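Please check this chain.
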Amino acid sequence: MKFIDLSLPIDDDLVETHDATIDRITHADGVDHFNWVVMNKKPGGQEAFDKGERVATKEEIPDGEMLSLEIVHSSVHMGSHVDAPFHYGSTCEGKPAKMIEDVPLEWCYGPGVVLDFTHLKFPDVITKERVVEALEKINYKLKPMDIVLLNTGGDKLLGTEDYVHKYVGCMPDAIEYLLDQGIKMIGIDTIGLDRPCFGMFKEFLETKDKSKIWPCHFLGRRREYCHMERLGNLGAIPRPFGFTVSCLPVRVKNAGAGWSRVVAMLDE
């Protein structure tokens, strides 16, 4: 079996609206961190630590190194992730919306279909008509619970301003069409499923037209589905269907999204 990684990392080098930061405690620094953790729990321990006292020296630790430790401060929407219905609104189909830990795992593992939209360029958008055309091109009829991946090539823009401001997003009629076919999980290789957000914000503020802001996301208040954002490497999948996708999300308590290591699996 061949595995293709479709995930992007949580990257603290990216400058975005909600930047991630990662505190990295090295193996060598871990010795002092160990001392701080132990001493800080005792009365007067912090003061003693600040004065240079230690309960263990590097010489007493194997190879003078402790375990590495990384502390991540990040939105659940950084890196490849799954958005749950709760992200779209507090209710879905008249019931409390599912948070990420409530999303059925059956939605997150199943037959994959990748649709090619790499010929589109900003400000082009993915519409129902273009989804139908992409399916006709590969001669495939969607089945309920297929996991549909939208390949725009947007991951190639990662690290540039265009990744945030100039990518190919979706229109709600495209998402509605996929849901009509029984799809529960959709994925895209851009920072967002809708059109670039600052363009949407501008149109909404100028017109106060509710349909201009997050229409694909807000569709999830009326119809239940999940989607993945910030995928990568979709072009490496060698065939448009006949593979399996796993996108099991991390269980973040009371959250509308969870990071995911998204993988395509193919029998060779």
Observations:
- Residues 29-40 form the longest helix (12 residues).
- The chain is about 25% helix and 20% strand.
- Helices lie at 29-40, 45-50, 85-88, 128-137, 161-165, 172-180, 197-207, 215-219.
- Residues 60 and 73 are 32 Å apart (CA to CA).
